[in-house]
Design goal:
Blueprint: H1 16-26, E1 30-31, H2 43-53, H3 67-81, H4 87-90, E2 91-94, H5 96-108, E3 114-119, H6 125-131, E4 135-140, E5 142-143, E6 150-151, H7 154-160, E7 165-171, H8 183-193, E8 199-203, E9 229-234, H9 235-238, E10 247-250, H10 253-266, H11 272-284, H12 288-307, E11 322-326, H13 335-345, E12 348-349, E13 351-352, E14 365-369, H14 374-384
Parallel strand pairs: 1-12, 3-4, 3-7, 7-8, 8-9
Antiparallel strand pairs: 2-10, 5-6, 9-10, 11-14, 13-14
Helix pairs in contact: 2-11, 3-11, 5-6, 5-10, 12-14
Length: 390
Protein backbone atom coordinates (compact mmCIF):
# COMPACT_ATOMS: atom_id res chain seq x y z
CA UNK A 1 0.00 0.00 0.00
CA UNK A 2 1.35 3.40 -0.98
CA UNK A 3 0.87 6.03 1.71
CA UNK A 4 -0.49 9.42 0.58
CA UNK A 5 2.19 12.08 0.33
CA UNK A 6 1.29 15.75 0.47
CA UNK A 7 4.23 17.77 -0.78
CA UNK A 8 5.45 20.58 1.45
CA UNK A 9 6.49 22.42 -1.72
CA UNK A 10 3.76 21.52 -4.24
CA UNK A 11 4.48 24.46 -6.53
CA UNK A 12 8.23 23.83 -6.70
CA UNK A 13 9.82 21.90 -9.56
CA UNK A 14 13.43 21.47 -10.59
CA UNK A 15 15.31 24.76 -10.39
CA UNK A 16 15.82 26.60 -13.69
CA UNK A 17 19.59 26.43 -13.21
CA UNK A 18 19.54 22.64 -13.22
CA UNK A 19 17.11 22.59 -16.17
CA UNK A 20 19.17 24.92 -18.33
CA UNK A 21 22.52 23.35 -17.43
CA UNK A 22 21.15 19.91 -18.30
CA UNK A 23 19.75 21.24 -21.57
CA UNK A 24 23.11 22.84 -22.33
CA UNK A 25 24.82 19.50 -21.76
CA UNK A 26 22.29 17.64 -23.89
CA UNK A 27 22.68 20.13 -26.76
CA UNK A 28 26.45 20.57 -26.45
CA UNK A 29 25.77 24.26 -25.84
CA UNK A 30 27.99 26.89 -24.26
CA UNK A 31 26.58 27.23 -20.77
CA UNK A 32 26.19 30.93 -19.94
CA UNK A 33 23.14 30.15 -17.81
CA UNK A 34 24.32 28.89 -14.43
CA UNK A 35 26.61 31.31 -12.63
CA UNK A 36 29.93 29.54 -12.29
CA UNK A 37 33.36 30.59 -13.60
CA UNK A 38 35.19 28.58 -16.22
CA UNK A 39 38.55 29.10 -14.51
CA UNK A 40 40.20 27.90 -11.32
CA UNK A 41 40.66 29.68 -7.99
CA UNK A 42 44.05 31.33 -7.29
CA UNK A 43 46.84 28.79 -7.03
CA UNK A 44 48.00 30.37 -3.76
CA UNK A 45 44.60 29.48 -2.30
CA UNK A 46 44.44 25.91 -3.55
CA UNK A 47 48.03 25.37 -2.35
CA UNK A 48 47.00 26.27 1.20
CA UNK A 49 44.02 23.93 1.04
CA UNK A 50 46.27 21.14 -0.19
CA UNK A 51 48.63 21.85 2.67
CA UNK A 52 45.90 21.47 5.27
CA UNK A 53 44.56 18.33 3.57
CA UNK A 54 47.97 16.77 4.15
CA UNK A 55 48.54 18.14 7.64
CA UNK A 56 45.68 16.88 9.74
CA UNK A 57 42.77 19.27 9.07
CA UNK A 58 40.39 16.52 8.04
CA UNK A 59 38.01 16.11 10.96
CA UNK A 60 34.96 18.11 12.03
CA UNK A 61 35.45 21.85 12.24
CA UNK A 62 33.82 23.72 15.14
CA UNK A 63 30.12 24.26 14.45
CA UNK A 64 30.46 28.08 14.05
CA UNK A 65 33.51 27.70 11.82
CA UNK A 66 37.29 27.51 12.12
CA UNK A 67 38.43 30.31 14.49
CA UNK A 68 41.17 31.46 12.11
CA UNK A 69 38.68 32.03 9.31
CA UNK A 70 36.21 33.86 11.52
CA UNK A 71 39.06 36.04 12.78
CA UNK A 72 40.15 36.83 9.21
CA UNK A 73 36.56 37.79 8.36
CA UNK A 74 36.33 40.04 11.40
CA UNK A 75 39.49 41.85 10.26
CA UNK A 76 38.14 42.12 6.72
CA UNK A 77 34.84 43.55 7.97
CA UNK A 78 36.59 46.17 10.07
CA UNK A 79 38.80 47.30 7.17
CA UNK A 80 36.12 47.29 4.48
CA UNK A 81 33.03 48.35 6.41
CA UNK A 82 34.33 49.99 9.56
CA UNK A 83 32.44 47.66 11.87
CA UNK A 84 34.15 45.81 14.70
CA UNK A 85 32.77 42.27 14.75
CA UNK A 86 33.09 39.68 17.50
CA UNK A 87 34.44 36.66 15.61
CA UNK A 88 33.13 34.24 18.25
CA UNK A 89 29.64 35.68 18.75
CA UNK A 90 28.75 37.24 15.38
CA UNK A 91 30.24 35.13 12.55
CA UNK A 92 29.12 31.67 11.40
CA UNK A 93 30.61 29.76 8.48
CA UNK A 94 27.90 28.13 6.32
CA UNK A 95 27.65 25.52 3.60
CA UNK A 96 27.32 28.19 0.96
CA UNK A 97 25.19 31.32 1.05
CA UNK A 98 22.07 29.30 0.25
CA UNK A 99 22.34 27.42 3.53
CA UNK A 100 22.99 30.69 5.33
CA UNK A 101 19.85 32.24 3.86
CA UNK A 102 17.84 29.12 4.69
CA UNK A 103 19.07 29.04 8.29
CA UNK A 104 18.31 32.74 8.80
CA UNK A 105 14.78 32.33 7.44
CA UNK A 106 14.08 29.24 9.55
CA UNK A 107 15.45 30.95 12.64
CA UNK A 108 13.18 33.99 12.31
CA UNK A 109 10.03 33.17 10.33
CA UNK A 110 7.04 31.60 12.09
CA UNK A 111 3.81 30.20 10.70
CA UNK A 112 1.70 32.97 9.18
CA UNK A 113 4.52 35.53 9.13
CA UNK A 114 5.00 37.58 5.99
CA UNK A 115 8.35 37.92 4.24
CA UNK A 116 8.95 40.62 1.65
CA UNK A 117 11.26 39.94 -1.30
CA UNK A 118 12.18 42.12 -4.28
CA UNK A 119 11.45 40.70 -7.74
CA UNK A 120 13.36 39.53 -9.66
CA UNK A 121 14.20 37.44 -6.56
CA UNK A 122 16.65 34.56 -6.27
CA UNK A 123 14.71 31.33 -6.45
CA UNK A 124 15.72 29.86 -3.08
CA UNK A 125 14.02 32.58 -1.02
CA UNK A 126 10.36 31.66 -1.34
CA UNK A 127 10.71 27.88 -0.84
CA UNK A 128 12.66 28.55 2.36
CA UNK A 129 9.90 30.87 3.56
CA UNK A 130 7.23 28.30 2.67
CA UNK A 131 9.02 25.57 4.63
CA UNK A 132 9.04 27.88 7.65
CA UNK A 133 5.27 28.34 7.33
CA UNK A 134 5.60 31.92 6.15
CA UNK A 135 3.97 33.83 3.31
CA UNK A 136 6.11 35.52 0.67
CA UNK A 137 5.11 38.99 -0.54
CA UNK A 138 6.73 40.03 -3.82
CA UNK A 139 7.58 43.66 -4.56
CA UNK A 140 8.73 44.20 -8.17
CA UNK A 141 11.75 46.39 -8.80
CA UNK A 142 11.14 49.46 -10.92
CA UNK A 143 12.78 49.92 -14.33
CA UNK A 144 14.24 53.27 -15.36
CA UNK A 145 12.77 54.25 -18.70
CA UNK A 146 15.88 56.04 -19.93
CA UNK A 147 18.38 53.27 -19.24
CA UNK A 148 16.40 50.09 -18.66
CA UNK A 149 18.20 49.61 -15.35
CA UNK A 150 16.44 48.27 -12.28
CA UNK A 151 16.01 50.04 -8.94
CA UNK A 152 13.96 49.65 -5.76
CA UNK A 153 10.42 51.00 -5.89
CA UNK A 154 10.55 52.46 -2.40
CA UNK A 155 6.87 53.37 -2.23
CA UNK A 156 5.78 49.85 -3.17
CA UNK A 157 8.21 48.43 -0.62
CA UNK A 158 6.85 50.69 2.10
CA UNK A 159 3.28 49.75 1.16
CA UNK A 160 4.14 46.05 1.51
CA UNK A 161 5.33 46.39 5.12
CA UNK A 162 2.63 45.76 7.73
CA UNK A 163 2.17 44.35 11.22
CA UNK A 164 2.56 40.80 9.89
CA UNK A 165 5.91 41.49 8.22
CA UNK A 166 8.53 39.41 10.01
CA UNK A 167 11.38 39.66 7.52
CA UNK A 168 12.56 41.62 4.48
CA UNK A 169 15.10 40.03 2.13
CA UNK A 170 17.29 42.24 -0.03
CA UNK A 171 19.97 41.14 -2.48
CA UNK A 172 22.51 43.76 -3.52
CA UNK A 173 24.59 43.64 -5.63
CA UNK A 174 21.53 42.18 -7.29
CA UNK A 175 21.26 38.90 -9.15
CA UNK A 176 20.07 38.92 -11.90
CA UNK A 177 19.83 42.66 -12.70
CA UNK A 178 23.18 43.97 -11.41
CA UNK A 179 21.49 46.81 -9.48
CA UNK A 180 23.33 48.18 -6.45
CA UNK A 181 22.37 50.28 -3.44
CA UNK A 182 23.82 53.64 -2.43
CA UNK A 183 24.19 54.98 1.10
CA UNK A 184 21.05 57.05 0.49
CA UNK A 185 19.22 53.86 -0.45
CA UNK A 186 20.25 52.23 2.82
CA UNK A 187 19.02 55.31 4.69
CA UNK A 188 15.69 54.99 2.91
CA UNK A 189 15.45 51.30 3.74
CA UNK A 190 16.22 52.08 7.39
CA UNK A 191 13.51 54.74 7.47
CA UNK A 192 10.95 52.27 6.09
CA UNK A 193 11.88 49.62 8.67
CA UNK A 194 12.22 52.07 11.57
CA UNK A 195 8.63 51.71 12.75
CA UNK A 196 8.55 47.98 11.95
CA UNK A 197 9.63 44.97 13.99
CA UNK A 198 10.79 43.21 10.83
CA UNK A 199 14.22 41.66 10.57
CA UNK A 200 16.45 41.95 7.49
CA UNK A 201 18.39 39.37 5.49
CA UNK A 202 20.93 41.05 3.24
CA UNK A 203 22.24 38.70 0.55
CA UNK A 204 25.59 40.25 -0.41
CA UNK A 205 27.34 37.38 -2.19
CA UNK A 206 28.51 39.65 -5.04
CA UNK A 207 29.89 42.26 -2.63
CA UNK A 208 33.27 42.47 -4.39
CA UNK A 209 32.04 42.40 -7.99
CA UNK A 210 31.05 46.01 -8.65
CA UNK A 211 32.24 47.97 -11.66
CA UNK A 212 33.17 51.40 -12.99
CA UNK A 213 34.68 52.68 -9.75
CA UNK A 214 31.50 52.23 -7.73
CA UNK A 215 31.63 50.72 -4.25
CA UNK A 216 29.45 48.31 -2.34
CA UNK A 217 27.37 49.82 0.45
CA UNK A 218 26.85 46.98 2.90
CA UNK A 219 24.20 46.76 5.57
CA UNK A 220 27.18 46.20 7.87
CA UNK A 221 28.00 49.89 7.45
CA UNK A 222 24.61 51.13 8.59
CA UNK A 223 24.10 51.60 12.33
CA UNK A 224 20.31 51.62 12.13
CA UNK A 225 20.04 48.48 9.99
CA UNK A 226 22.77 46.37 11.58
CA UNK A 227 20.92 45.43 14.84
CA UNK A 228 18.12 43.71 12.88
CA UNK A 229 20.23 42.12 10.14
CA UNK A 230 21.68 38.84 8.94
CA UNK A 231 24.36 39.66 6.35
CA UNK A 232 25.12 36.68 4.10
CA UNK A 233 28.09 36.36 1.76
CA UNK A 234 30.08 33.72 -0.09
CA UNK A 235 33.66 32.76 -0.84
CA UNK A 236 32.46 30.92 -3.94
CA UNK A 237 31.86 34.13 -5.89
CA UNK A 238 34.90 36.01 -4.60
CA UNK A 239 37.38 33.14 -5.04
CA UNK A 240 36.02 31.72 -8.34
CA UNK A 241 35.10 28.52 -6.48
CA UNK A 242 31.33 28.12 -6.49
CA UNK A 243 31.64 24.35 -6.12
CA UNK A 244 33.18 24.65 -2.68
CA UNK A 245 29.87 25.87 -1.21
CA UNK A 246 31.41 27.92 1.61
CA UNK A 247 29.69 31.07 2.78
CA UNK A 248 29.16 32.94 6.00
CA UNK A 249 26.62 34.85 8.05
CA UNK A 250 27.44 37.94 10.11
CA UNK A 251 24.75 38.97 12.59
CA UNK A 252 24.47 40.55 16.05
CA UNK A 253 24.81 38.06 18.97
CA UNK A 254 21.08 37.52 19.65
CA UNK A 255 20.44 36.77 15.97
CA UNK A 256 23.55 34.61 15.69
CA UNK A 257 22.38 32.49 18.62
CA UNK A 258 19.12 31.72 16.81
CA UNK A 259 20.88 31.26 13.48
CA UNK A 260 23.24 28.65 14.93
CA UNK A 261 20.35 26.70 16.43
CA UNK A 262 19.24 25.96 12.87
CA UNK A 263 22.70 25.76 11.31
CA UNK A 264 23.89 23.06 13.72
CA UNK A 265 21.08 20.74 12.65
CA UNK A 266 21.25 21.38 8.90
CA UNK A 267 24.98 21.41 8.21
CA UNK A 268 26.67 21.48 11.62
CA UNK A 269 30.17 22.06 10.23
CA UNK A 270 31.74 23.03 6.91
CA UNK A 271 34.80 21.49 5.19
CA UNK A 272 37.72 21.88 7.58
CA UNK A 273 40.74 22.03 5.23
CA UNK A 274 39.01 24.55 2.97
CA UNK A 275 38.24 26.82 5.90
CA UNK A 276 41.86 26.73 7.03
CA UNK A 277 43.09 27.33 3.49
CA UNK A 278 40.80 30.31 2.93
CA UNK A 279 41.85 31.77 6.28
CA UNK A 280 45.53 31.53 5.33
CA UNK A 281 44.83 33.08 1.95
CA UNK A 282 42.88 36.03 3.36
CA UNK A 283 45.64 36.76 5.87
CA UNK A 284 48.41 36.46 3.26
CA UNK A 285 46.55 38.37 0.53
CA UNK A 286 44.05 40.70 2.23
CA UNK A 287 43.74 42.83 -0.91
CA UNK A 288 42.65 39.96 -3.16
CA UNK A 289 38.88 40.51 -2.70
CA UNK A 290 39.28 44.12 -3.81
CA UNK A 291 41.04 43.01 -7.00
CA UNK A 292 38.13 40.85 -8.13
CA UNK A 293 36.09 43.77 -9.51
CA UNK A 294 38.75 44.75 -12.05
CA UNK A 295 39.11 41.13 -13.14
CA UNK A 296 35.39 40.71 -13.82
CA UNK A 297 35.03 44.17 -15.33
CA UNK A 298 37.43 43.06 -18.05
CA UNK A 299 35.17 40.07 -18.69
CA UNK A 300 32.08 42.28 -18.80
CA UNK A 301 33.73 44.77 -21.15
CA UNK A 302 34.88 42.05 -23.51
CA UNK A 303 31.41 40.49 -23.61
CA UNK A 304 29.68 43.84 -24.12
CA UNK A 305 32.10 44.82 -26.89
CA UNK A 306 31.21 41.61 -28.71
CA UNK A 307 27.49 42.30 -28.23
CA UNK A 308 27.74 45.75 -29.79
CA UNK A 309 27.68 44.19 -33.25
CA UNK A 310 24.35 42.47 -32.52
CA UNK A 311 20.79 43.77 -32.46
CA UNK A 312 20.52 43.20 -28.73
CA UNK A 313 19.79 46.18 -26.51
CA UNK A 314 21.67 46.27 -23.23
CA UNK A 315 23.22 48.48 -20.57
CA UNK A 316 26.56 47.17 -19.23
CA UNK A 317 26.02 45.45 -15.90
CA UNK A 318 26.85 47.52 -12.85
CA UNK A 319 27.77 44.46 -10.75
CA UNK A 320 27.80 40.64 -10.47
CA UNK A 321 29.05 38.46 -13.33
CA UNK A 322 25.77 38.52 -15.26
CA UNK A 323 24.77 40.65 -18.23
CA UNK A 324 21.13 41.21 -19.16
CA UNK A 325 20.31 41.52 -22.84
CA UNK A 326 17.02 42.63 -24.39
CA UNK A 327 16.13 40.65 -27.51
CA UNK A 328 12.87 42.56 -28.13
CA UNK A 329 13.97 43.82 -31.55
CA UNK A 330 14.27 40.20 -32.74
CA UNK A 331 11.15 38.43 -31.54
CA UNK A 332 8.14 38.80 -29.27
CA UNK A 333 8.45 35.24 -27.96
CA UNK A 334 8.61 34.82 -24.19
CA UNK A 335 11.98 34.78 -22.49
CA UNK A 336 11.59 31.13 -21.51
CA UNK A 337 10.78 30.16 -25.09
CA UNK A 338 13.76 32.09 -26.43
CA UNK A 339 16.16 30.69 -23.81
CA UNK A 340 15.14 27.13 -24.65
CA UNK A 341 15.19 27.69 -28.42
CA UNK A 342 18.58 29.35 -28.46
CA UNK A 343 20.06 26.59 -26.31
CA UNK A 344 18.82 23.97 -28.76
CA UNK A 345 19.33 25.80 -32.07
CA UNK A 346 22.24 28.18 -31.44
CA UNK A 347 23.82 26.14 -28.64
CA UNK A 348 24.15 29.03 -26.18
CA UNK A 349 22.35 28.67 -22.84
CA UNK A 350 21.01 31.58 -20.79
CA UNK A 351 18.47 32.15 -18.02
CA UNK A 352 15.05 33.76 -18.61
CA UNK A 353 14.33 36.64 -16.24
CA UNK A 354 10.70 35.64 -15.69
CA UNK A 355 11.66 32.70 -13.47
CA UNK A 356 12.76 35.18 -10.81
CA UNK A 357 9.37 36.90 -10.68
CA UNK A 358 6.00 36.06 -9.14
CA UNK A 359 3.92 37.98 -11.69
CA UNK A 360 4.19 37.25 -15.38
CA UNK A 361 7.22 39.13 -16.66
CA UNK A 362 6.44 40.95 -19.88
CA UNK A 363 9.97 42.00 -20.73
CA UNK A 364 12.26 40.42 -23.28
CA UNK A 365 15.43 39.96 -21.25
CA UNK A 366 17.80 37.05 -20.79
CA UNK A 367 20.64 36.67 -18.28
CA UNK A 368 24.07 35.60 -19.53
CA UNK A 369 27.01 34.72 -17.27
CA UNK A 370 30.28 36.30 -18.45
CA UNK A 371 32.50 34.61 -15.84
CA UNK A 372 34.15 32.67 -18.63
CA UNK A 373 37.42 32.82 -20.54
CA UNK A 374 37.48 35.26 -23.41
CA UNK A 375 37.54 32.54 -26.08
CA UNK A 376 34.32 31.05 -24.70
CA UNK A 377 32.58 34.42 -24.71
CA UNK A 378 33.77 35.13 -28.23
CA UNK A 379 32.46 31.79 -29.48
CA UNK A 380 29.15 32.29 -27.67
CA UNK A 381 28.46 35.60 -29.41
CA UNK A 382 29.59 34.12 -32.72
CA UNK A 383 26.95 31.39 -32.31
CA UNK A 384 24.31 33.99 -31.51
CA UNK A 385 25.32 35.65 -34.79
CA UNK A 386 24.51 32.57 -36.86
CA UNK A 387 22.38 33.24 -39.95
CA UNK A 388 18.75 33.77 -39.06
CA UNK A 389 19.39 34.37 -35.36
CA UNK A 390 20.15 38.07 -35.32
Amino acid sequence: MRLPLDSKLPAVGTTIFTVMSQLANDCDAINLSQGFPSFDPPEALTDRISYHLKHGANQYAPMPGVPALRSALASKTLVEHGRAIDADAEITICSGATEGIFAAIQAIVRRGDEVVVLDPAYDSYEPSVTLAGGITRHVPLAIRLESGEFEVDWQRLQDAINCKTRLVIVNFPHNPTGAILSRADLDRLAAILDSSSAYLVSDEVYEHIIFDGQTHCSVLQHDALWPRSFVISSFGKTCHATGWKIGYCIAPPPLTVEFRKVHQFTTFAVSTPMQHGIADFLVAQPNFPRQVAAFYQQKRDHFCKLLQSTRFRFTPARSTFFQLIDYGDLTTATDTEVAMQWTRDLRVASIPLSVFCEQAFTGTRLRFCFAKDDATLTEAVARLHQPGSL
